[in-house]
Amino acid sequence: MPVEALMDDDLDELAWLNLDDVSQTLDVSEIEHLYQTLELEEARIEVEISDCVEHRNSVDTRLAQLSALHKSVEATSLLVKPMQRVIDATAGNAGAISGHVRELDQERVKLEHALNTVKETVELKSRLSELLTAMETRDVDRASLLVHEYKATSSDTLDSPFIAFASDSSPPRDIIAAATKELVERVTFMFNTAVESNNTREIGRCFRLFPQLGETQRGLDLYSEFLCAAITDKTRLAQVHTTYALRITRLFEAIASVVDNNFALVEQYYGRGYVLRIIQRLQMEGARRACLVLDFFEEERQVKRRLAQIQQVDVAKPRPLVKAKAEKDDGISDGDFKDIASILAEVVLIGRQVAAFNRFLESRAQPEALLLLGDPETQARVFLSTESLNKLVPLSSALPNAMHVDAQTGLVAHTQLTSRVEWLTNVYVELEAFCVQRSMAKAMALDDTNELSGWDSAVISDVEARAQGPMVQTSSCVGDVFFVAKTALEHAVAVQQPRAVEAIAQCVLEAFGEFVRVMGQQAVEKWADVASVQRRILVALNNLDLANVYLQKMVDEVRIRLNTEWARLPEADKTKGQNAIDSLSAISSKLLQAQQHSIDQLSTSLLKPCMRSILQHSYRDIKYVLSDEEFNDVQSDNLFQQRFNLRIRKLGHQLRPRLLPSTYTLVVDAMCACLVYDWERAIRQSKFNMLGGMMFEKDVRFVQLCLEQEAGGVLRAKFAKLVQMARVVAEPAETSVAGVDKDVRALLANRVDVVQPN
């Protein structure tokens, strides 16, 4: 193996060899191994020595180059030392110069500040002279502008010792303060004079001067008082109207017009957010005037007396239904009821206008209030204080909650109108609940079921429908009742009070409970003639079916109206209103129950006898034990199918004009139930052979098809058992009937061609 290949492998082994250990080694194999290792080390050293000898000239050359480089470095060092001394001296001089430059820069800044102070002082001296001249010449606009400019002057300039006046040695601050005070008094006097003379141009001029004098609150308050007086003039024409809802409307329209017309003006000269103070003042004025209108309304319309009348009436007591006018057993005449309805209409209009007015003010104030949320100092200057609010409320008005300005909306919370709105809502709920129950009771009492045209003849299964005039399928009470209910719910939505919607929805639920009871009562009332009984049952069915349609439509329309008109109300209020409206859907289950009860009554009085008569007539001389010849004859001329088709068409021609399409489908379904019940009983008592069973199966299919055509739907479930019975009696005797009901398998005993086991 070459020495180079072994060198690297044996370096580690040579590193740990110890001469003492080598001398003490006695084992021959170890000695041989050590000997080989030493030989390899000797060879490696010889190779290294050979390399050194071979490259000796190169190493000598490099050492000579290094020696020459050392001498060059020493010579360069001698040349650099003088330059080093020059650089050190220059650095010292630069530090001293830098210090002097800094001193000069500071002197320059002081000089510039002194020059600016002198310049501002000269300007201040000149403008103070202009101010004094403007005050002497009563140039209010120029003097106000100069005062506004002085507010931007630095305090050092105002306290400058360079200002001296031969005629007046007062400090500038005192001169400006005295001028400002005098100007404020002059502008205030000018404003009041302009208001008295109704000089709107002068009023606007003075209003723009107040912010220049630093009197924003005074300007806003004076202008607010002027606007409140202007509202009085605008609403004076409305006082001639006896309709208080119109007075409220004119008042709120005037305030809305004032807010919109002055919004941009205030924002231009006072800044964003300052219009809130005027809005709050107008809100308080509107609340005060609206409360006065409501006080007069309560007194003139005798609201308390009407409420006392209503409270004396036991509205929960069911009233007897008569054909003519309802007996007035509640002590309230038609004239009184008309007055109550008139009061209710005004209350609804007033409630609607109050809600619309509040939403309008909120739409104008809330964006401005949000701008001031992060600026408490500006809020304090703009918002009316609690003390100011209390001064605007008459001492006779005791408010349940302390008034304050809501920082989120920018409006006054718990004004005197708030408590009156609560009173108005209570009045509305009582009036509306009474009118709903009274109107619905009257609508049901004046129901025209007995006067409907086209119901003179009774329904008879074996008689052709006689030609007669158009039939009126529903009575008047359905449309009247739902008109009353929908009108009441729309009123509640218009008032925009969640508890009003909840109360009226509950009242409507109770009233519809009475409506369902009356419809159910019509189906069981005893009458002398059959035609009257049928008319009341069928009309009640139509009424209940139509009521279900009207109910869903009413709920959907009122919900849409609520979502539209309550768009700006809090989500919690909208949720309460929607839940109250959705609760009306519970009436649907009551209507369906009453409808099913009426169908049961119809089945007992009409459908069962008719279907039994049709079945008996159709089966006259019919048998199901047929020979081949008889089977062929029946196939070509099936009397059962012909008779059944004729009679069922006659019955359908009489019932269809009397019923609504959806109601007719339900009645046909009930007809199927009656027919199937009697037919199953008859078949269990009949005899069959296989050919007769096949003919019976065809008859079942034919009857199912006839009734499905009448109903306009599938009746497979109704005929399932009859079809199964037909299959049992129509199949060969050896066919298995596994999986068929036990009572159906019993029909095999009626087969005359099947030998029965003993």
Low-confidence stretches: 1-7, 315-328
* Major pleated sheet: 2 strands, antiparallel
Determine Rg (CA atoms, Å): 54 Å
For the termini, the CA-CA separation is 116 Å
SSE blueprint:
Layout: H1 3-15, H2 19-23, H3 28-54, H4 56-137, H5 140-150, H6 155-158, H7 172-196, H8 200-209, H9 216-235, H10 244-270, H11 275-300, H12 303-312, H13 334-371, H14 376-382, H15 386-391, E1 404-405, E2 412-413, H16 416-445, H17 476-495, H18 498-522, H19 530-565, H20 571-582, H21 587-618, H22 628-636, H23 639-655, H24 661-684, H25 690-711, H26 720-730, H27 742-745
Antiparallel strand pairs: 1-2
Helix pairs in contact: 1-3, 4-5, 4-7, 5-7, 7-8, 8-9, 9-10, 9-11, 10-11, 10-13, 11-13, 11-16, 13-16, 13-17, 16-17, 16-18, 17-18, 17-19, 18-19, 18-20, 18-21, 19-20, 19-21, 21-23, 21-24, 23-25, 25-26
Describe the structure.
The protein is an all-alpha fold and 758 residues long. The protein is 73% helix and 1% strand. It has helices spanning 3-15, 19-23, 28-54, 56-137, 140-150, 155-158, 172-196, 200-209, 216-235, 244-270, 275-300, 303-312, 334-371, 376-382, 386-391, 416-445, 476-495, 498-522, 530-565, 571-582, 587-618, 628-636, 639-655, 661-684, 690-711, 720-730, 742-745, and strands spanning 404-405, 412-413. The chain has a two-stranded antiparallel sheet with strand order 1-2. The longest helix is centred in the first third of the chain and has 82 residues, at 56-137.
